[in-house]
Amino acid sequence: MGQGLSCGTNHEQGLFRAVQLGEFETVEAVLEREPALLHHTTVYDRHSALHIAAANGQIKILSMLLDRSVRPDVLNRQKQTPLMLAAMHGKISCVKRLLEAGANILMFDSLHGRTCLHYAAYYGHDDCLEAILSAAQSSTVAASWGFVRFVNIRDGRGATPLHLAARQRRPECVHILLDKGALVCASTGGYGFPGSTPLHLAARGGSLDCIRELLAWGADRLQRDASGRIPYMVALKHKHGACAALLNPSSAEPLVWPSPLKFISELNQEAKALLEQALMEANKEREKNILKGTVYSLPSPSNSDVGLEDSISEVSDTELCCICFEQVCTIEVQDCGHQMCAQCTLALCCHNKPNPNTACLTPPVCPFCRSTIGRLAVAKMKNYDDTDHDIGDFSSSKLRKSRKSRNFSEGSSSFKGLSSAVGTFGKMGGRSSGRIAAENEWVDKT
Ligand SMILES: [Zn+2]
Ligand SMILES: [Zn+2]
């Protein structure tokens, strides 16, 4: 097979080459002469012209082929669809065009039983991943299969897209998948059998950022894989020292994206991004302590500290959060309109890691008026100079000066302190940072 290079094969070769190189006119001319070539495939891999266009990002040719009613889900030798190849190579415009043409997102290749979502996650193309997920939300897949089931779809070895993204060091994809409902503790074993979790695979891959994302989402450092190992041991085995330090069960627990936030019906995207950033920054403060004195010390994130100081010195006192007096108010509670900083908002919503056995969570309440927080939005900057607007008794400039003169790198300690401080909010003005820090130690251990 493949030896007899007939005239037809030559035309085929010419067509495939022209598709690959994006020679639109040539492709059109060849197809005018010999329309049947549309259904020919390469000899070995059995790629169709559509596969080749998709893999090479030749959107114009891909569109033309689809317009000539080539089926979007034509398969090659390994049962890969053009959509899988486009997702593999990060050809976002081709991914979108194929989805528009009704490409089936629920096809499995015969290599590892993977879908287009696995491909996007494995190769780290977050734009393709998002396009496929949004198609899944609006397509019949959501209705027939269930969207979350699709997000957690397994390949032939039990790996979900989250497993693959974690293994291949793709923190952006890890983030998107978690946000869309990927199960952080999914085991490749499935059905209750032991297997690797995404955290095991991130430990193996050695990506600190993936590990941070997974831990912030509540990944369990003590879950064991089929060989009985916790992720910490996997990281050690593969000599990822900094990862191992974070995964060490005796290291301080990171803050976890608070599940009460899920009770807030409308978490505005911008507000959410601010809160996520605050969470990650707080965790990085913790990491400094975990990694301090080890050979794995991270370079100090000087730019974020400097940025904070700058922004503080620029804003008027009105905008300082009146819980911590350190950060700018960026989050507004609705409907009451009270404002606080992202870190305080998070701390307010942060409980210890959610216990799956006690799913009795209540929505968080506003620390100022105790009304249930219905929504969180990004606070609008106040332009008027209504200095003591809702700051009340805490507004003496002397107090604020003293707060401002404190070392801003303490941010995370006041952050953690809020959960204990909220109860005694009225006394906040007189607290000493030393006492709060001591309380935090205690809170941590519970
Ligand atoms: Zn604050
Ligand atoms: Zn309020």
TrEMBL record:
Record keywords: ANK repeat, Coiled coil, Metal-binding, Repeat, Transferase, Ubl conjugation pathway, Zinc, Zinc-finger
Gene name of the record: LOC115987073
Pathway: Protein modification; protein ubiquitination
Gene3D superfamilies named in the record: Ankyrin repeat-containing domain, Zinc/RING finger domain, C3HC4 (zinc finger)
Stored SUPFAM superfamilies: Ankyrin repeat, RING/U-box
Presence of keyword Coiled coil: yes
Highest taxon of source: Eukaryota
Positions annotated as ANK repeat: 45-77, 78-110, 157-189, 194-226
PANTHER family: E3 UBIQUITIN-PROTEIN LIGASE XBAT31-RELATED, HOMEOBOX PROTEIN WARIAI
Stated name of the protein: RING-type E3 ubiquitin transferase
Record-linked InterPro entries: Ankyrin_rpt, Ankyrin_rpt-contain_sf, RING_XB3-like, Znf_RING, Znf_RING/FYVE/PHD
